[in-house]
């Protein structure tokens, strides 16, 4: 029984890390353009986009899971597309778990990244414009380097939030050991089965992974290390 429990623990850990790393990468890929757009005032629809991006922080995970289910399910637009191209939907697959984790982590990345971009002095933007830096060059060589502390904070927050995701993942990806069963879902299953010793081990492991992630991030942000050497943003 001990050996079985150990296999279950490491399987859940591996599944969690794969899903969370993929979700964090997806968050960064979608969140950076959103943060850059929201940091620029004056365009029409900015307030609506801001609300939509931040809304996952206010909604219960089950509601987010329901909306995601409508999007990628058999009758949803993404579900219809994947059925046509791939012969099936993303429901109850690791991809669905990645989408659920990314959805809950996105606003936690966008907010600090956006705040850091907004803090870049206007004089810097003006000087860059005079030098001919526009569009992608301006974002890549001016805005992103100066906003790195906030971007890193967002990555850290999105990673740790995705690590603990439960409700939305359960609705769209299920609780399939070895495929979609993350540490959070494995704890739930262990408690439901009356295996409190296993649940305790899983809970301690999840706590340790989250604590180590935060510790590593805080150390890297100390003065003289990483992007925090350029500008400190409170974490």
Could you characterize the architecture of this molecule?
The chain is mainly α. The protein has one domain: MetI-like fold. The chain has eleven helices and no strands. Helix 1 packs antiparallel against helix 8. It is globular, with a radius of gyration of 20 Å. It starts with a helix and ends in a 15-residue tail after the last helix. The C terminus is likely disordered.
Main features:
single chain, 235 residues, mainly alpha, MetI-like fold, 11 helices, disordered C terminus
Helicity level: over 70%
CATH superfamily: MetI-like
Tell me the number of structural domains: 1
Order of helices and strands: HHHHHHHHHHH
The CATH topology turns out to be MetI-like fold
| Count of individual helical segments | 11
Quick overview:
This protein is mainly α and 235 residues long.
Record the SSE blueprint:
Blueprint: H1 2-38, H2 46-54, H3 61-72, H4 77-86, H5 94-118, H6 122-130, H7 135-146, H8 148-163, H9 167-173, H10 183-192, H11 196-220
